[in-house]
Each structure stands twice: as C-alpha cells, then as structure tokens.
C-alpha cells in the first residue's frame, strides 16, 4: 500500500519535474514557479502543495541517483572549454555564458572545464546556502591562483583550513589595531578625498580620464593602515604598479582561465596562454611588496609597531608562535592590495558613469549634499544616516555594477549534497552574484533607479538579494572600508563639482569589460566647480 502511494507521488513528481524543466527553458524561473500557487497538482488541495513538495524531496533523497549537476555535454579532456571559447567569440562575457547555461540547466549548473569540475550557483537561496556551509568554505588551489602565492596555499583570499582561519583572525585584529573602521580610517579617507578634490580643482574644466582616477587614492587609504605610508597622487612608480594590477585583473576571469584548467599548456604556449605575462605581472607586484617589507624590517621598533606589517614582523619573531613566514606576509599584503583596489575603483567608476547618464540623479545628490552638509564643511561618515538618497545611490551602484560578478571561487572540501545533486570534493564553486543583482527579482534590473532602496516612508531599505560582498564566513573583510570610501568619494566630489560629459564624447557605455573584477569601458568627464569660488575652494583644501 505504502509502495503504491509512493509510486503515485513519484509519478506526479515526474510530471511536475517535466513541467518545471519545460517552463525553466521558456521563462527561466524554476524557483519562483515551483513556489507559486499556479502549480496544479491533481487531487491535492492548493494549500497542501508545499507539503507535497516536501514529501517529494524526501522521497527523492532516497530514490534518485545522486548525480553531478546537469550542464552542457563535455568533450574528453577539454570538457566544455571549446563551447566557452565559442561563446566568448560572440563577445559574451564569462558571467553571461554561465547565466545563459544556468537558464537552461538550472540554478546548480555543472561544468567540466579542462581537468576541473566547476559548478555555478544561481539564485539567492542556493548562494546563501553555499556561502554558509562549512563544506563549501574552501578555496580552489588551481595553478593560476597558486602562482601568485609561491605555488602554495597561503595568505587570506586563496587559502583555507586552519591556516586561513588563523590568518583571517590575525589580519582583522591588526587592521583594527591600526585604525580599521575607526576615526583613524575616516581621517585617512577624508585626507585622500581632499587631495583628490584638489587635483580636480587643478584640472577643472578639462576632460579627465575617469577609469584610473581612484586607484592611488584607494591604495593610499589601505596603505596607511597596512604600511603606514601614502604616495603623491601623481607618483609615477605607484601609478605603474596600479596599472599592472589593472592588467592582471583584465587578463582572466574569476574561473582562473586556461592556466587553471589545463595548466600544462604553459609549457606548450607560454605566451598564448598568458603565462609569461602573468609571471611578469606577479614579479613586479612582489618586488614592490618585498621592498616595502624590507624597509619595515630595517626600521622596525618592536616596542612601537606603526602598522599591520610591523605587527606581523613582531609576531613572526616570537619563537613560540611562528605561524607566518616572510612569504606569508607578502601574500597577505598582495591579497589586501589586489582585493582592495580594483573592486572599489571599478565600483566608483561605474557609479559616476551612471550618474552622468542620469542628470536628475546628479541633481538630487547635489540637493541632498547641499541640504545636509552645505557647501563648506567637509563630508563625514556620520552624515550617512541623514542622507538616504545618497546611500540608495551607493546600493544601486553596488547592485548594478556587481564588479565581483562571480564572487571569489569557493571549493567543496568534501563530497557534498546540494539540492538533489552531489558536488564532488575539490569542485570549484562560483557564485553568480552578477545574475543575483541583475535578474528578474529587480523587475527593471537594467535601470539605475536608487528609489528601489527607499521605502514609501522615505527610509533606506535593504534587500536580501543584494550581497555584493558575499555572505557567511568568507564574506569580504573590506566591506566597511569599501562602503565608507564610496560614500566619501561621492559626497566630496559632488559637493564641489558638477559632472559633465566633454563636448562630442559619447554617453559612456554600461557594458562592462570582463576580468577578475568587471570594469567600465574608458570614458572622460569634466569637473565643473560648483557652490564655491576659488577662495572657498582654497579654504576647503
Ligand atoms: C566594492 C568593493 C568590494 C567588493 C564588491 C568586494 C567583494 C568581495 C566578495 C564578493 C568576496 C568573496 C566572498 C566569498 O568568498 O563568498 C570578497 C572577499 C574578500 N575581500 Fe572584498 N570586496 C570589495 C572590497 C574589498 C576591500 C576594500 C578589501 C580590502 C581591505 C577587500 C578584501 C577582501 C578579502 C581579503 C577577501 C577574502 C576573504 C576570505 O576569503 O576570507 N575587499 N570581497
């Protein structure tokens, strides 16, 4: 009798599954659909549908074979790499390819890229589940990721296990000790914003290339905490270093590219595979970091550490507590520099891009800044609570640009079940954050509309679909810094300037460049002084 009941439910499940699959291909809305009330299940009252799905899930657990998630058919050895290459030829970005396939195969998309299993996770619930489960808290050790850290897992970003736990705890502690998320950090941001405004006053009225405008400012803020040092905004060496980091971020997407999936190709085609270029990029960044650390070693005062590097050097000297090597410290600095520069810079550049495309938004920002801060007093972080519209613009910029389009890859530490599938140990797990932020949930995802984050009563509203910094244990450690920087950049610049497109320049495109972090196509702006005459500007600076 029980067997018959189970068979009958199983039949209904199969028919539901067929319909879901069809619908998924047509409307790409399996999740929403299966929860919606329009599903007709014969003989079962509508209010019991949820229960039926629960029973089905339970039966599924025992009856269905535990399979790798579905995806396009892989070829021997190269897996889906050929299909990816073909898709890229028609100018698609990596995250768009994954998105297109996820629409066909579902929110847990299984790929085989060269020698690696890669699973793409879409939808809020699965993204949160993966981010919160310990078993998915690893980071892949692909060749591309390891070549930046002397061939081994080390540092913060591409590390896992007890070494990562310890490093993360210590880095956070030292960052806090030297001012992270405190008044000191605000002062550093404030000083750098003033320097930036001063630079724009110098070239006011002239077209300025925006794409690398924030790089040195951002490195300076971070480097005050990490290395106790700042550079002039036109420092040629630091400019070169920032350009090198930008090149690295453009060279490959977050899956790590061919060097991760078929690492032996570097022996056959070292130029074509990008291996030689990556080696020279990493060498330049490591030379800069080694020099910075050596300077600290020469000037170290063990009783009076001045920054994060000093604190690490002192920790390293303790014979009972020798967790970190010289190389580990170098990789931590590399992680902070790389993770902290491009992400914030690219978001800021996209933010100005959307503002210049929407003049009414610029006007509302000016109005709010004038009302809350006024023309003279430098903006402070405490202004944020009274600037709902500005905060909504920041959220909207984080959403629409989603520069960490696929997050940072996670890795399954053991075989693990997710939904009805098995994710084998060692699988790369990429989180489709861009899709989360630019999918149907937002109704008009392509429109830059800050009002979506403001309630009818005029309060700021969070949305659980928005997670630009990830979630769970591997959540970004730079979130506080990034949000503070974006607020201060925006308010300092718009307090003093009106942004204008140079005569004859096209309206900048919203289409991103691919890379480890998405970036905007090149565009220029003119900064027109507002609200101030030269004397006031001089006083401010
Ligand atoms: C708008 C700016 C930023 C965005 C959108 C962003 C986004 C992210 C995302 C999505 C992750 C991965 C979370 C996961 O694995 O699930 C991450 C991790 C990380 N971020 Fe950020 N980030 C930004 C700024 C920063 C800054 C300023 C810093 C430096 C202080 C930073 C340092 C890191 C580090 C070290 C990790 C690795 C954490 C770990 O694996 O334990 N990020 N970030």
Automatic annotation (TrEMBL):
<dbReference type="Pfam" id="PF00067">
    <property type="entry name" value="p450"/>
</dbReference>
<dbReference type="GO" id="GO:0006082">
    <property type="term" value="P:organic acid metabolic process"/>
</dbReference>
<keyword id="KW-0349">Heme</keyword>
<dbReference type="InterPro" id="IPR017972">
    <property type="entry name" value="Cyt_P450_CS"/>
</dbReference>
<dbReference type="InterPro" id="IPR002401">
    <property type="entry name" value="Cyt_P450_E_grp-I"/>
</dbReference>
<dbReference type="GO" id="GO:0016712">
    <property type="term" value="F:oxidoreductase activity, acting on paired donors, with incorporation or reduction of molecular oxygen, reduced flavin or flavoprotein as one donor, and incorporation of one atom of oxygen"/>
</dbReference>
<dbReference type="GO" id="GO:0005506">
    <property type="term" value="F:iron ion binding"/>
</dbReference>
<protein>
    <recommendedName>
        <fullName>Cytochrome P450</fullName>
    </recommendedName>
</protein>
<dbReference type="GO" id="GO:0008395">
    <property type="term" value="F:steroid hydroxylase activity"/>
</dbReference>
<keyword id="KW-0479">Metal-binding</keyword>
<dbReference type="GO" id="GO:0006805">
    <property type="term" value="P:xenobiotic metabolic process"/>
</dbReference>
<dbReference type="GO" id="GO:0020037">
    <property type="term" value="F:heme binding"/>
</dbReference>
<dbReference type="GO" id="GO:0005737">
    <property type="term" value="C:cytoplasm"/>
</dbReference>
<dbReference type="InterPro" id="IPR050182">
    <property type="entry name" value="Cytochrome_P450_fam2"/>
</dbReference>
<dbReference type="InterPro" id="IPR001128">
    <property type="entry name" value="Cyt_P450"/>
</dbReference>
<keyword id="KW-0560">Oxidoreductase</keyword>
<keyword id="KW-0408">Iron</keyword>
<keyword id="KW-0503">Monooxygenase</keyword>
<comment type="similarity">
    <text>Belongs to the cytochrome P450 family.</text>
</comment>
<feature type="binding site" description="axial binding residue">
    <location>
        <position position="476"/>
    </location>
    <ligand>
        <name>heme</name>
    </ligand>
</feature>
<dbReference type="InterPro" id="IPR036396">
    <property type="entry name" value="Cyt_P450_sf"/>
</dbReference>
